[in-house]
Amino acid sequence: MNSIVKSPSGNSKPINIAPVLDFLACQTPQAWIQTALINEEIMLVDHANCEKKAASTALNLLYRYTEKPDLLDKLSRLAREELRHFEQVLVIMRKRNIDYAHISPSRYAGELRKSIASNEPDKLVDILIVGAFIEARSCERFAKLVPLLDQQLAHFYQSLLRSEARHFQDYLDLAESYAEYDLAPRIEFWREKEAELVLRTDTEFRFHSGPLIAAM
To answer: Do you find a cis peptide bond into 121, omega within 30 degrees of 0?
Structure first.
């Protein structure tokens, strides 16, 4: 995958997502991309859900770790941006007459959170690493979809790449600042777990699902 993502309209500077791609252990399977292209409505509904959940996660951390000013500064901005993205997805859905219907969440984030440490400060470090992987995977998938979507949706997803890459780096920087040990082995643990979830087949399509069984 090319790490330089160009604007569909050519009106903005290309974005280099090489750090994101280097962080992930695998790329999104082509089978998932093919399923996304024929399930645009579900993709947008679940994308809206993901943005809302990302804002909620950041806000929860703001309430839980009030003694950490650098975390408060970075995640308050992140929460605002995620809610703005949520609003933007809703606008696109309305223009396309897509109802914001209830759909079940994917197993992706829930499965990742099952392995988060229970004791501090390891718990916070794990939450931040997981946040970095979720943001990195979102960025990678947006980049894969940009060349394949209609101009409006491609332009929107391309516009998200810079903030998603920054969110990934913010989470990772915070994790490194709070870790009381070499973070590399723990990042590798999560890298393997995240890749396994991305490559494992799923029965329902979601923005962070694996490829559908029927598509294999």
So the answer is: yes
